[in-house]
């Protein structure tokens, strides 16, 4: 019986040790798992393994929901157009504008968002943000700057990270490189998300700021090394844009 308990402890410790190594946990966890029988495994399960499992489960669910929304953008556009034709409400108009943008018709999306901003919805922050996205997508960067600046005047904290990234991209689009860099730097300092750093790196690569681009690339790789396959799938479009941007960047020396 004693031998069985010992082997059970060893097997459990090995199982959690493999998880600790793969998820890059701190070295003391390995000592705890083997030095403190069963109690160490219980602590690891509650403190590390269970939260990690829950995050992975959430990531899988989010990835599935995201995939379901983007499987058929043409159908989504068709449905949105039909809904708007049947009932031309503000809600259906916004739905149509978003569907046009996802389907790749940025010109139509910009026009529809512009129409949404007439009348009582002139200061709606969600619509104004969508209008900025559509404007950038169709190359109307000056218009996007106007939308974001107006948004910051009326709702300075509304989706601050997205607004900052859109403004930085729009500033870059009109050739105001120094202001674009300053806006990217402010966004990274305030938010520090993978998306923010990735967009900054894409800009840096295009602006031939190679030293900055490589520094950001190294930070992003460190983050991606910790991802599971579901997180990677969720960020795949952005990762592909990164790869395309760095295809023209000289290797780091």
UniProtKB/TrEMBL annotation:
Residues annotated as signal peptide: none
Listed name of the protein: Tetratricopeptide repeat protein
InterPro entries tied to this protein: TPR-like_helical_dom_sf (IPR011990), UCP030959_TPR_rpt-cont (IPR014562)
Membrane-spanning segments: 30-50
Keywords: Membrane, Transmembrane, Transmembrane helix
Species this chain originates from: Pseudoduganella umbonata
Keyword Acetylation: no
The keyword Disulfide bond belongs to this UniProt entry's keyword annotation: no
Pfam families, per database record: TPR_19 (PF14559)
